[in-house]
Amino acid sequence: MSADYSFVADAMKQAVPWVKTVGVEFPEVAADRVVAELPDREELRNHVGGPHAAMMFGVAETASGAVVMAAFAPHLTKATPLVARSEIAYKKLALGTLRAEAVLGRPAAEVVAELESGTRPEFPVAVTITDAQGVTTGEMTVVWTLRPNR
């Protein structure tokens, strides 16, 4: 029996209004992997006709946040997820709809064990950004932490 992650898309749209504003969708959601898509809209483009770098960053960071929500939902009463740092590499001009695939970099159980031991864990989420043709246009690593609630 697999877990139900259907709540993630609505939760992300409520928790992060930007997600709803720009139209990010979540066609694939699992506990350790999420795919987010940003539609190709003229008002989101840059001076060379592709999605603005801020849009690429935004959809990648959003995908990483969605996988964190999916992976750690049962523990969010004990801790708040926060981005500690991130790094992005823009590889090629993106054209069309953007697809950001985020993959949890450490097993969730390992991260939760650290949290429960009193340590504030950090864990990476690797994100690959592709364009409408499936070409990799960017790569991002977002390092998250779970800050214990007081």
Structural commentary:
29% of the residues lie in helices and 35% in strands. It has 150 residues and is an alpha+beta fold. A 6-stranded antiparallel beta sheet has the order 1-2-4-5-6-3. The protein is elongated.
Report helical residue fraction.
Answer: 25-40%
* Succession of helices and strands: HHEEHEEHEE
Largest beta sheet: strand ordering: 1-2-4-5-6-3
List low-pLDDT spans: none
Strand portion, in percent? 25-35%
Number of helices: 4
Going by helix content, strand content and strand pairing, the class is alpha+beta
Mean pLDDT: 95
Main sheet: strands, sense, barrel: 6 strands, antiparallel
Radius of gyration: 15 Å
Write the layout of secondary structure elements.
Elements: H1 7-15, H2 17-22, E1 25-29, E2 33-38, H3 53-72, E3 79-90, E4 98-104, H4 108-116, E5 122-130, E6 136-148
Antiparallel strand pairs: 1-2, 2-4, 3-6, 4-5, 5-6
Keyword list:
150 residues, 35% strand, alpha+beta, 6 strands, elongated
How would you sum up this structure in a few lines?
The chain is of the alpha+beta class and 150 residues long. The protein has helices at 7-15, 17-22, 53-72, 108-116; strands at 25-29, 33-38, 79-90, 98-104, 122-130, 136-148.
